[in-house]
Amino acid sequence: MNKKALLTVAASIVAVVFIPAFTFMPGEVEVGKAVPAFSLKGIDGKTYSISDFKGKVVVLEWTNPNCPYVQRVYKSGIMPGVQKKYADKVVWLTVNSTSPKHQDFEKAEDLAKQYKEWSSTFATMLLDPEGDVARMYDAKTTPHMYIIDKQGKLLYAGAIDDDPRGNKSEKTNYVDAALTSVLDGKSVSNATTRSYGCTIKYAP
Amino acid sequence: MRRRFIPFLLVFLSFQVSSQTVKGVQIVRAELISDAADFTKPFTVGIRFEIQPDWYLYWKNPGDSGLPIEVEWVLPAGWTADELRHPVPQKMAHENVVSYGYKKEVVLLTTITPKGSSGGRVKAKLDWLACEKSCVRGKAEVSLDMKNQSAGKQADAKRILDLWKGLLPLARSENPVTFQKAVASLQGAAMNIEIPFQAKQGVQIVDFFPASIKGFLIDYRTVGVKNGRIVFSGTDEGTGTGEIYLSGLLIGADGKGYECSVPVKFSSM
């Protein structure tokens, strides 16, 4: 559907009328638009800004090692596999928005150790203990994936794949497909999908 | 002594309970229940989950996160199970996420149609996600030997099944509203939709719990009932079908759920 075009909606019993929309706040990010700026500390102690990576394709991956979905996509090799495939073509940033007040919280050194054990090849893990960037990006789950193009425009938001239960023999890896399209200069066919996983662990 | 022991053993083995524990605490206990004694006609089986306080399981549409309870039946040859019937769930909002699910206890119901007149063992493979502050995946196999249930067990099952049948949503044929006119607008990439309805006298509709919509990403924070309208926003996932089928539960002020369904077609100009 052409979202920029005028839209009509016809329910089975319905004539089409346009009225002002009711209030809707989807967060500050939107597929097809520039992403908002942010700076966060990484587990290496350095501060990173999203603007540092202008000119490069960036992947943001919301994560929490104590979430069973995150554990599954790492242990099964799904996440490390796609990270490794694009390691020299994109900047892969994981974001951990788990509050220090939450029982799932892990210290930076423990996070580094865990993801190394899972053969992750991310550039760094950003720490968002207040959850501000998660709210800004409207990240809902771990994992929740975002792909940003070289100009800083969001091209994909959603799930890692179409297999929430991890039992499909044939699955579509949305991030892999989207990155292939982005790097080939083609449009992303599934630009928004329903992410699945655990909720972001904000302060209780 | 031995003669007493054998019937006891038969009753004991006639049902199988499964529990999920976290750090030594049982958080979910699952079992099959039925009061059926006549296997010449269809009968009700319930999958009962008892859930530790503060934990919850998810409805068939979990909302923004989570997973619905998945059930795979293993039945005697020729027997069939109808679609699961889910009681009206609770809506739970945490930060920017909305979930639909069950706390404390839930019984999912189905009708099983047997073949022949003798009982058999009904088995269900269950897969769920239990959440509290954190989430834990649960899997179990539970079974019930329909032939060897004690009268006491059947009476307990009947009481529980009757209670949970009363908590099921009312069928679409008993829908107490008439849909009137759908209205839509775009705000950025979000499509905002309103469907006004007229409720029967004496029925007050206060909320709407949607089923998931294929090809359309619902923003669950926006879903509800305002001024006699179902309102919701979402994003087309790029399927280009130009059509969604909105179904779900209208929720009454008295907590009752009413199944409803409205096809909504879109066209670009």
Give structural attributes:
heterodimer, A: 204 residues, alpha+beta, seven-stranded mixed β-sheet, two-stranded antiparallel sheet, 5 helices, 21% helix, B: 269 residues, mainly beta, 55% strand
Describe this structure in words.
The complex is a heterodimer of chains A (204) and B (269). With 204 residues, chain A is of the alpha+beta class. In chain A, 21% of the residues lie in helices and 21% in strands. Chain A is globular, with a radius of gyration of 18 Å. Mean pLDDT of chain A is 87; it is low at 1-26. In chain B, 40% of the residues are buried. Chain B has 269 residues and is mainly β. Chain B has helices at 2-13, 151-165, and strands at residues 15-16, 18-22, 25-33, 43-51, 56-63, 70-74, 80-81, 90-94, 97-103, 105-113, 121-131, 135-145, 177-179, 183-187, 190-199, 205-210, 216-226, 229-236, 243-252, 257-268. The chains are: A alpha+beta (204), B mainly beta (269). Chains A and B meet through strand 1 and strand 10 of A and strand 11, strand 12, strand 14, strand 15 and strand 17 of B.
Summarize the entry for a quick read.
The complex is a heterodimer of chains A (204) and B (269). Chain A has helices at residues 68-75, 78-85, 108-117, 132-137, 174-183, and strands at 7-11, 39-42, 47-49, 57-62, 90-96, 124-127, 141-142, 144-148, 154-158, 198-199.
